[in-house]
Amino acid sequence: MDKLQTAATVLIVPGLREHVAEHWQTLLEARLSKVRSVPPLETDKLDCAARVRAIQHELEQIDGPVILVAHSAGVLMVAHWAATHSHPIKGALLAAPPDLAAQWPQNYPSPQTLRTHGWDPLPKGALPFRSIVAASTDDHLASFDAAKRLALDWEAELINLGDVGHLNPASGYGPWPQAEALILDLDR
User: Fold this and answer.
1) Cβ atoms 74, 15 nearer than 8 A
2) What is the pLDDT along the chain (188 residues), one digit of tens a residue?
3) Which Pfam family is one of those matched by this entry (predicted)?
């Protein structure tokens, strides 16, 4: 299998999930030639500040420009990171951002739990690098309108993915070929 060549190093920023072999980010990581991934936290898994420190730690290991590829809560981690840190970021693909004001299913953290752990309020204002928000029209963690508001707040491009749920294996998605094209667009 040929590896996808990029000039920038891609840093994968997963959401709150543990490692999932069939997830599009895991599959994408295997296809890239220059890639790192933010590892899952072992303790205090909902601590937003610890997640931001983990992103910063990985970035400190990379020389040169970076493209961030975040999914779900990883998108929120990137917003928090960008509000307090800097690094030569070439661009960011921000897929399926959750809505902190939405009512999520029972197996997800409550809005109060997320607030307690530093996720809310979410930083607003333009992200300091080119960003693409890719959102679904039937995501159970965020309406398309909520994702559109985030894209406007961050001055990011918005891509309507259609009915892809939360763009994860539970929604029937493993590989996401469009991600590669979006990364190459950010890398130009």
Assistant:
1) yes
2) 689 899 999 999 999 988 899 999 999 999 999 999 999 998 999 999 999 999 999 999 999 999 999 999 999 999 999 999 999 999 999 999 999 999 889 889 988 899 999 999 999 999 999 999 999 999 999 999 999 999 999 999 999 999 999 999 999 888 999 999 999 999 99
3) Ser_hydrolase
**Joined tokens for residue 125:** 């204002």
φ, ψ (nearest 5 deg) of residue 186: -65, -30
With tokens 């890239």, the residue in question is 32
Q: What is the number of other CB atoms lying within 10 angstroms of the CB of residue 171?
A: 15
The DSSP annotation for 63-113 comes to -S-EEEEEETHHHHHHHHHHHH----EEEEEEES---TTS---TTS--HHH
Quickly count helices (H) and strands (E) in the chain: 6, 6
Determine the Cα–Cα distance for residues 91 and 2; give it in Å rounded to an integer.
23
How many angstroms separate the CA atoms of 71 and 65, rounded?
Answer: 20
Architecture in CATH for domain 9-187: 3-Layer(aba) Sandwich (3.40)
